[in-house]
UniProtKB/TrEMBL annotation, chain A:
It comes from Friedmanniomyces endolithicus. One of its GO terms (biological process) is TRAMP-dependent tRNA surveillance pathway. The lineage of its organism: Eukaryota, Fungi, Dikarya, Ascomycota, Pezizomycotina. Belongs to the RNase PH family. It is found in: Cytoplasm; Nucleus, Nucleolus. One of its GO terms (cellular component) is nuclear exosome (RNase complex). Its main location: cytoplasm. This is Ribosomal RNA-processing protein 43.
TrEMBL record, chain B:
InterPro entries: ExoRNase_PH_dom1 (IPR001247), PNPase/RNase_PH_dom_sf (IPR027408), Ribosomal_Su5_D2-typ_SF (IPR020568), RNase_PH (IPR050080). It is found in: Cytoplasm; Nucleus. The keyword rRNA processing applies. Keywords: Cytoplasm, Exosome, Nucleus, RNA-binding, rRNA processing. This is 3'-5'-exoribonuclease. Pfam families: RNase_PH (PF01138). The gene is MTR3_2. Belongs to the RNase PH family. Residues 1-39 are annotated as: Disordered. Residues 39-199 form the Exoribonuclease phosphorolytic domain. It comes from the Eukaryota. The keyword Nucleus applies. One of its GO terms (cellular component) is nucleolus.
Automatic annotation (TrEMBL), chain C:
It comes from Friedmanniomyces endolithicus. One of its GO terms (cellular component) is nuclear exosome (RNase complex). Keywords: Exosome, Nucleus, rRNA processing. This is Exosome non-catalytic core subunit rrp46. Residues 10-129 form the Exoribonuclease phosphorolytic domain. InterPro entries: ExoRNase_PH_dom1 (IPR001247), ExoRNase_PH_dom2_sf (IPR036345), PNPase/RNase_PH_dom_sf (IPR027408), Ribosomal_Su5_D2-typ_SF (IPR020568), RNase_PH (IPR050080).
Amino acid sequence: MANGTAKPPGLAFSRETFAKLTPGPFLQAHLQQPEPIRPNGRSLDAFRTPTIHTGSLSHSNGSAVVRLGDTAIVCGVRAEILLASDIPHPPGEDTSEDDLVERLGLLVPNVELSTGCSPGHLPGNPPSTVAQALSYRILSLLHTSNLINADDLRILYTEPASEDDLPDEGSKVVTKAFWALYIDVLCIALDGNPFDAAWAAVISALKSTQLPKAWWDPDREMILCSPLATETHGLRLDDIPVASTFAVFSTGSALKQRSEAESWVLADPDGFEEDVCSETVTAVARSDDGGVGSITRLEKSGGGAIGKAAMGRCVHMAQQRWREWQGVLHGG
Amino acid sequence: MQTDRRRLNAPPGGTAPPVFAALPDTKLQRPTRSRKPDEHRKLFLRTGIVPSASGSAYYEIPPQQQQQTALLVPQHSSLKITCTVHGPRPLPRNAAFSPNLLLSAHVKFAPFATRNRRGYVRDASERDLGAHLETALRGVVIGERFPKSGCEVVLTVLEGEEDGWGAGGAEVKGEGWGIMTVLAGCITAASAALVDAGIDCVDLVSGGVAAVIDAGRRGDQEDGVVILDPAPSEHDGEIGAACVVAYLKSRDEVTELWIKGDAGAQVQILIDEAVKAASLVRAVLADAVKDAVEAKIGEAEDDAATTGLAKEGKGKSKEVVMTG
Amino acid sequence: MGPDISHHPLQGADGSVTFSSNLCSILAAANGPVEVQRRDELPEEAAVEVNIRPPSGVSGPRERWLESVVAAVLRSVLHLHMHPRTLVQITLQITKAPSSTLKGAIRDVALLPSLINASFLALLDGGLPLRSTVAAVFLAVVGMGEVREDPSEKELAGCKSVHGLAYNNHGDLLLSESSGSFDLAEWENIADQAEETCRAAMAPLDEDGVVMKGTMSSGPWLRQELTDKAQAAVAWREAT
């Protein structure tokens, strides 16, 4: 445009170049518009639509593939037998059922990110801090939500009556062994928010898990299982909690005035947004009515840009997300 | 299992895989091969499944028939492999100068890929597969166009072929035939992913596998029959030798050849059959790659058409002007 | 009464402190700014490395997760821009942990506030530049819906939910870890109570050193620490 005053010619970059050179200002430019929108085209509160396929792996007791946008995660559940006689420190009689699964270590989740799922996660390296933290968070959430009943994992044996027993005493039922579940989570493609997708994969795989009928054979002194598919049993999972993660993008820094800082809460961040935001919030909801006991876990760290009010909004969004997931988990 | 302090470990006391009881009254039918000796199983191949990688592909051989639902243990084998290619990327600063592309292939079986649970640490058979795959790919990639660069080809086997048919869950005598089919699949998947990544290759390389069925054990009069694309569960204990080739059809060249077992007088026939198998696979590979390229061209044309206009849902026009 | 703090127990580290609360004891050491590995170097800020050692056994995924949470909080507390291309290293040795009869998640949430308080005091002892003061508190909701601050192990048995929160002196919420079974109204109530406690811990002392708000049992323990430290630092001036 011809003008009286000579303006220095601007540099024209394509969007991709701008995003690579200055990711922070690129995201900020999108969010500061009158109608804030994210570079991936979603609004601030929009989550990605999940898809779940279960039962595709034939060597696992349960399996699920979850796709959340471009993030794809596969989970396989393998059951193996832990003999009660092999347990080095058997828990006492007073251990509650809720604590038994945790005390015996019957659930073994592991998240593997070094599968080439993104350029930053190439194989040949031991699990990074991110992968280890993810595995532990899944384990912690499995135990906190009391998702698995210890009774579903027991292999019982009714001891035959012997001469020592009193006549009116019923036959004793002892637990000869437990099922230990190896929950292996592999990330095939990563585009942000591995935790939500991994948790969804774990619960879908556990829902579809079938454990064979097992019994104690006193002659061979070992546990035998029936290979018939009709004699399997599944796991009872009630009140399945659903995880929702949010990233907070803030323009504040130590070098600027506190009052100048602006912040935005982005639901279900993708890879680009995760790299630019340091603050995250994860809310694990168990129902959508906000009633008693509706939240299982609430985590926030990485910054101080948002407070109580924004956390409340995140919890509401997590509860709505719970309803969205129910359709996918039970329908798919 | 060794305790790995970087992962969550098995419960103290250790676990063992379940042992299945033999059922006296259930007749177990071993699956038999219903295809012709020179017929390949149906393949499924798709590229572009991992957008953040330079190139990627998903390769699957679905089970031939519906799994018999009466038994827990799968009776028909299937194969699922994902492959991602990251590169060309610059070599680390301390690496020596390399006039060619440094290709490294990495194969890993998922823990739930086989009947016996595998660990997370790479074992010898996986390293072996990686070495064979590197040989196969090195012959097809035009390395001198990418000096001082490296390329990582990462394969994850989500479900692998078993070595035989475990009757109703009985122990499978591991003789290593399943891994031949896995290698053939890996070669094909890696080839598709390399094309998706845009790395210059002289041709499409496809993997084919053939085996000599020791008919003598079945009491037949003939010499061992050579079949292509053996499914080890259909030939429990009958396979005498197997061969994998990585074949370039338009140049009629073989970049990798791996023979296991004793083929006797039929070595040449075995190799020829494997080459035939590779040609059949190449047809599927070429189709998949063509579809992917056509889709990419279509996308690029759409992008060019909307330059200057605000793209739907993007909120910002294609070109961004930075002043100052 | 407040937590039990002892100063500079380690001579070799730039800053060190031992911090004991009802449930756990932490020995914290801070070193920095020190030289950083090429691969961890950041061009415009200092890198933060946190190492957590459990009381017994080797560290595993649990410690990696605790480290990532503590490091995330400390990044908002340190003046990272003042020492670019260097490393601030914090080592936290848990000398006494909550008993293993409690559920794992309860033990983790109970540890986090002590870990943060100990790290902050160690950074202070080491003279590293800090943007703000941070105090963390551990609360539990026991049987009848009552909220207990820094409870004992007996009170924790059978609690419904546990919460660890950290606030800085501007009132920003830097950390919130909650686990158990609760709803939003309960959490908001707990957040308010935690903010009051943290504010009280950092509250300015009047001339007599009397607590401004006499509601919390722990009183302005952090402000007391900061005042003592500052006085000790300028004591040489009085002497000469």
